[in-house]
Design a protein that fits this description.
Blueprint: E1 11-14, H1 22-28, E2 33-37, H2 41-44, H3 47-57, E3 61-65, H4 74-87, E4 91-96, H5 98-110, E5 122-123, E6 133-137, E7 149-154, E8 159-164, E9 172-175, H6 185-204, H7 212-232, H8 237-256, H9 261-273, H10 277-292, H11 297-306, H12 316-333, H13 339-343, H14 347-352, H15 354-363, H16 376-386
Helix pairs in contact: 4-5, 6-7, 6-8, 6-10, 7-8, 9-10, 9-15, 10-12, 10-16, 11-12, 15-16
Bound molecules: nicotinamide-adenine-dinucleotide (NAD).
Nicotinamide-adenine-dinucleotide binds near residues 41, 138 and 180.
Length: about 375
């Protein structure tokens, strides 16, 4: 086995109220002027202004860039970089879900590395550290606050670019579950299954290692226990807190192991059909799991037991089949619609895009980490099965 690298932010503060540590952490980073990168929701609900006022009370200047769209684009990043330069900021704060945090990562990185962004697509291509960055997640889902990954849509090629580099890792993550309490039910479901997918894929990945395994399994266990409660009872603080922890663990696990085929196939659904990231993972997870089971029966069986789908006396074969069925039942319980209801185009048009989607999935590198490495034809068949 080749040696494994484990990167996480140098500081992670987790728990209710953690986000109010922002001024102290910016001071610790030696910065004086933060560019807050967020999406319009956090301007409307007043949270961005609360942080700007809180920073002001600590004599830290703040500017706002709030034009991040879901599944952020290269154009969002370019506009944010302009805002960073024009404001003379010296650090970046990503406030929001994975979209705002990923945009913030790319802006901070480009502050010290030349454009275009596309040249950094793939693995370890960023030459220099960027501006210091603090991540404050508001969805308990992507785990982007602790990953060395940014996913940005290339608007010219209609492709979600996956960039992985230690230079994209936030310096600080402030994981405050209280910020996730406002999530509506559908968002809770989508980002929750995203978290589960991170835990599962990190554990079955060909790059799984002794540091990521226990974190991935803890992510799966927490999600199995708390996701439905967070979805049914949005004010359930215990469930929200547990899901914020699960999301953070999922991010740590997959960023240092990898995601696999679900994510590889999910990104083209976001790029071409604007299916939200968590939802596109959720609709693919049962089908792709069924396909991948033969690659690592023992690991999938462990997941099935941890999730409570398999009973103690079940052999591995029985356990893995219960896992695929259980994931389907979980989607149903969370009212996740089938793929055909997510893409909003007819089957014929969808099928015409399958070759490009399979090629883009393979080009991302993620399917090559899957327990069963698929061909383009198999990926096309899996999209059809999930339809
Ligand atoms: P998101 O950031 O796209 O947000 C979706 C919507 O939810 C937005 O309209 C946002 O305003 C709203 N929202 C966010 N928090 C809310 C809250 N607390 N209350 C109410 N509304 C809220 O959603 P996401 O699923 O967190 O992020 C998806 C993006 O993250 C995708 O682009 C995906 O590719 C990327 N991603 C990145 C990584 C990584 O490691 N970098 C990992 C997984 C996914």
């Amino acid at each position: 086995m080749t040696p494994a690298t484990f990167n996480v932010p140098s500081t992670v503060i987790i728990g209710g109220g953690a986000s109010w540590e922002l001024p102290a952490q910016i001071e610790r980073l030696g910065a004086r002027h933060a560019l807050i990168v967020t999406d319009p929701f956090f301007v409307q609900n007043g949270l961005a202004d609360q942080f700007i006022a809180w920073l002001g009370q600590h004599a830290i200047a703040a500017s706002l860039f709030c034009e991040v769209q879901p599944d952020p684009t290269d154009l969002n990043v370019r506009a944010g970089l302009r805002a960073y330069r024009e404001s003379n900021a010296d650090c970046v704060v990503g406030l929001g879900g994975g979209s705002a945090i990923d945009a913030a990562k790319a802006i901070a990185m480009l502050a010290a590395n030349p454009e275009p962004l596309r040249q950094y697509m793939g693995y370890h291509k960023v030459p220099r550290p960027g501006a210091p960055m603090v991540a404050i997640p508001t969805t308990a889902g992507t785990g982007s606050e602790v990953t060395r990954v940014a996913v940005i849509t290339d608007t010219e090629h209609h492709e979600k670019m996956m960039l992985l580099s230690a230079h994209l890792m936030p310096a600080v993550a402030l994981v405050d579950y209280e910020l996730s309490m406002s999530m509506p039910k559908s968002l809770t479901a989508h980002v929750g299954v995203d978290t589960l997918t991170h835990g599962i894929e990190a554990y079955v990945s060909r790059k799984a290692n002794g540091l990521t395994d226990p974190i991935a399994l803890s992510c799966v266990a927490l999600t199995a226990t708390h996701l439905l409660n967070a979805w049914r009872e949005p004010d359930n603080r215990k469930a929200r807190e547990a899901m914020a922890l699960a999301a953070c663990q999922g991010g740590m696990a997959f960023s240092n192991s990898s995601v696999c085929l679900v994510h590889g196939m999910s990104r083209p659904l976001g790029a071409l059909y604007h299916v939200p990231h968590g939802l596109s993972n959720a609709v693919l997870l049962p089908t792709v799991t069924r396909f991948s089971l033969p690659g690592t029966v023992e690991r999938y069986a462990t997941i099935s037991r941890i999730m409570g789908f398999a009973r103690a006396g079940d052999d591995n074969e029985t356990a893995v089949h219960k896992l695929a069925d259980g994931l389907e039942a979980l989607n149903e319980a969370l009212e996740i619609p089938p793929l055909r209801e997510c893409v909003r185009v007819g089957r014929a048009k969808f099928e015409r895009s399958l070759e490009k989607m399979a090629a883009d999935a393979l080009a991302s590198g993620s399917p090559q980490n899957n327990p069963v490495v698929p061909t383009a034809e198999q990926i096309i068949e899996l999209y059809k099965q999930a339809w």
